[in-house]
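Here is the promised in-class demo. Please do not try to memorize the tokens; focus on the logic of going from shape to residues.
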């Protein structure tokens, strides 16, 4: 068996095209503001991509760079200022914040209607009540990929490896709405392989390269690989390949042993090119949804 590779990039592109049409129907340009506290060279590329994705479909993007010495009170005051600005529809915080700042308290200070990452207690609570408003982007990305496959979900066994607030837990809640039977695994799980092998849909979101082997996959299962891991490129001799800069060459992989899994799974998302592009698309979708809500409320 050779699994069908699920094209997350193509699905993301279709989603972005739909968003462009929605944006055309909003009188005010949706506006996303990212907050970065202190210098973080590794997030530069990510922020540039975020800006490019927004601008490509007509979302205004602002990056507010606050000094590394910013106190918790100053950060909260800045978030509250953005909460009050009617022209800002989405507020995101670049994580992690520098030492001494409380990630969670800052996240919870974002107004729920501008919380386009879906991390506030209000938006999480909406998931539990079955009324999701702005769901966490990565969970919704994985959910939409699963939905796009057009399978009957009712009664399916779904195993999710990872119980974080951004992926595992919200994805479980989204899928429960489709009457699947979910199992969540984590580091306390005694027999990961047994739970995985039962799954009609297996979601790997642990951040551990090679955690899910082909032997753990039920033949014909749908495998959604959320993990993003950087691992050294190995040469024919099994040793790390050294690049021109004298450093080990690296590549990005998921949590699933992709090549081996191709022989067992029915469908599988690649890394890169699977959940990643859809996660960005969901951030933009939430920003557009937030701008639409703001417009509706302004009319009331
Ligand atoms: P966290 O570190 O917050 O959570 C990882 C989860 O996996 C935890 O619940 C942990 O268990 C569990 N876990 C770790 N190791 C094992 C193991 N050996 N066996 C079973 N469970 C294990 O990570 P995130 O949820 O933030 O991210 C998960 C992955 O998804 C990362 O690779 C991240 O880079 C990637 N990611 C991808 C995105 C995308 O767009 N594709 C976006 C966001 C994240 P415990 O709770 O017991 O510690």
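The designed amino acids, position by position:
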């Amino acid at each position: 068996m050779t699994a069908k590779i699920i094209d997350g990039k193509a699905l993301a592109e279709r989603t972005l095209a739909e968003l462009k049409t929605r944006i055309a129907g909003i009188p005010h340009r949706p506006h996303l503001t990212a907050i970065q506290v202190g210098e973080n060279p590794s997030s530069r590329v990510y922020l540039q991509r975020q800006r490019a994705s927004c601008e490509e479909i007509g979302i205004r993007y602002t990056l507010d760079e606050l000094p590394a010495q910013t106190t918790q009170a100053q950060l909260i005051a800045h978030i509250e200022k953005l909460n009050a600005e009617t022209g800002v529809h989405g507020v995101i915080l670049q994580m992690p914040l520098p030492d001494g700042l409380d990630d969670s308290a800052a996240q919870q200070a974002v107004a729920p209607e501008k919380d386009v990452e879906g991390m506030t207690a209000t938006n999480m609570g909406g998931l539990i009540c079955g009324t999701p408003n702005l769901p966490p982007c990565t969970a919704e990305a994985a959910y939409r990929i699963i939905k796009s496959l057009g399978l009957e979900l009712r009664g399916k066994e779904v195993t999710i490896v990872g119980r974080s607030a951004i992926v595992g837990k919200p994805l479980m809640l989204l899928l429960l709405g489709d009457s699947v039977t979910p199992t969540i695994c984590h580091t306390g799980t005694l027999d990961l392989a047994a739970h995985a092998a039962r799954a009609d849909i297996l979601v790997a979101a642990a951040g551990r390269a090679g955690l899910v082997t082909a032997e753990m996959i039920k033949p014909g299962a749908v495998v959604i690989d959320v993990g993003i891991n950087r691992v050294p490129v190995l040469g024919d001799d099994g040793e790390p390949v050294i690049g021109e800069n004298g450093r080990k060459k690296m590549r990005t992989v998921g949590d699933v042993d992709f090549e081996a899994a191709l022989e067992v799974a029915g469908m599988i998302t690649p890394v890169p090119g699977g959940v990643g592009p859809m996660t960005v698309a969901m951030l933009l979708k939430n920003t557009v949804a937030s701008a639409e809500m703001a417009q509706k409320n302004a009319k009331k």
